[in-house]
Amino acid sequence: MGVLGELLITVGVVLALFVVYQVWWTDLGAARAQSSADAELEQRWAAGHNPRSGGEPVTDEPLTGTAFARLYIPAFGSDYRFAVVSGTDGAALEIGPGHYTETQAPGEPGNFAVAGHRVGRGSPFNDLDALRTCDALVYATADEWLIYRVLPVDAPDRATARAQAAGCLPADVADRATSGPYEWLSGVSIVRPEDVRVIDAVPGHPGPATPEMLPLTTLTTCHPQYSAAERLVVHAVLDRTEPRVDGVVPDELRG
Amino acid sequence: MYAWLYGKLPGPTPLRVVLVLALLAAVVLLLMEVVFPAVDALMPYSDVSVGNPG
């Protein structure tokens, strides 16, 4: 067989191996990295290394790549669980969803913003576009469980948004989350990659976080699935918190 | 091309087979651990955060 034929076949095999890399090898690596980050997190929590002792808010962001919380999304199944690390650089996102360090901490007034891979490396945020109004995003931190609810998705008007939010949120939160500076936020939206406003303390409104702001969480990933042309953005508002007690999980994670 | 390379390997046939397998394993490992991650980082679906590109 000619050299050309052998080269073409070689190229074909290499491309096929790249597909294998994509759909299998990176997931293996990500699963290992997740598993070890999660084990380390569990150890730290069990040892009681708790920067929140005394009820003071966390002021120090952990080192990039260090896990500090877990994310559960019941809508994606009971086995959906990822350790969330600090930072959004390539190395951090290799391990799992990463916290934009310039944004707020879980539960703080403002916006706890997290980026995650859509394809490869465990694909944590592959299905974010399937999220609907009131779907729960549940975080666990050293001290507590935080249950957020996806904001109304593409509600045609404020009254509809308010009614949808009221289906899963306390009345006052539902009111505030669908009015004022929050009025036109959609639970799931597509934005341009340069649109950093989606991770502002109040998305769309630059400025520092202040105590009277609602605690939100924002998830970002790329869109469409294999492209970086846009970003898929999910906004959710804090519904409630529960203290973390051994053997007890929030209702949203049961069954 | 590959026939020529095989001819260059030393030793009797069993040794050559072992060498071929070892070389293939080394190439696959090099691809999976070095080449593909580098290419993958350049792929568009690796950009998942908002902000200035880069």
Structure description:
The complex is a heterodimer of chains A (255) and B (54). Chain A has 255 residues and is α+β, with helices and mostly antiparallel strands. Chain A has one domain (2-253): Sortase, Chain: A, CATH 2.40.260.10. Chain A contains four helices and nine strands, in the order αββαββββααβββ. Chain A starts with a helix and ends in a 12-residue tail after the last strand. With 54 residues, chain B is mainly alpha-helical. Chain B has one domain. Chain B has helices at 2-8, 13-42. The longest helix of chain B is centred in the middle third of the chain and has 30 residues, at 13-42. Chain B is rod-shaped. The relative contact order of chain B is 0.08. The model of chain B has no long low-confidence stretch (mean pLDDT 86). Classes of the chains: A alpha+beta (255), B mainly alpha (54). The A-B interface holds A 3, 6-7, 14, 17-18, 21-22, 25-26, 88, 90, 93, 100, 115-120, 125, 191, 193-196, 198-199, 220-222, 225-229, 231, 233 and B 1-2, 28, 31-32, 36, 39-41, 44-53.
Task: List key phrases describing it.
heterodimer; A: 255 residues; alpha+beta; Sortase, Chain: A; eight-stranded mixed beta barrel; 9 strands; globular; B: 54 residues; mainly alpha; 2 helices; 69% helix
Q: Give a short account of the largest sheet of chain A.
A: 8 strands, mixed, barrel
Structural classification of chain A: alpha+beta
Overall tally of structural domains of chain A: 1
What structural category arises from helix and sheet content of chain B?
A: mainly alpha
Q: Over all CA atoms, what is the radius of gyration of chain A?
A: 20 Å
Using DSSP, what is the number of strands of chain B?
0
Strand content of chain A: 15-25%
Kindly provide the name of the CATH class of chain A.
Answer: Mainly Beta
Strand content of chain B: under 5%
Number of strands of chain A: 9
Order of helices and strands of chain B: HH
N-to-C SSE string of chain A, H for helix and E for strand: HEEHEEEEHHEEE
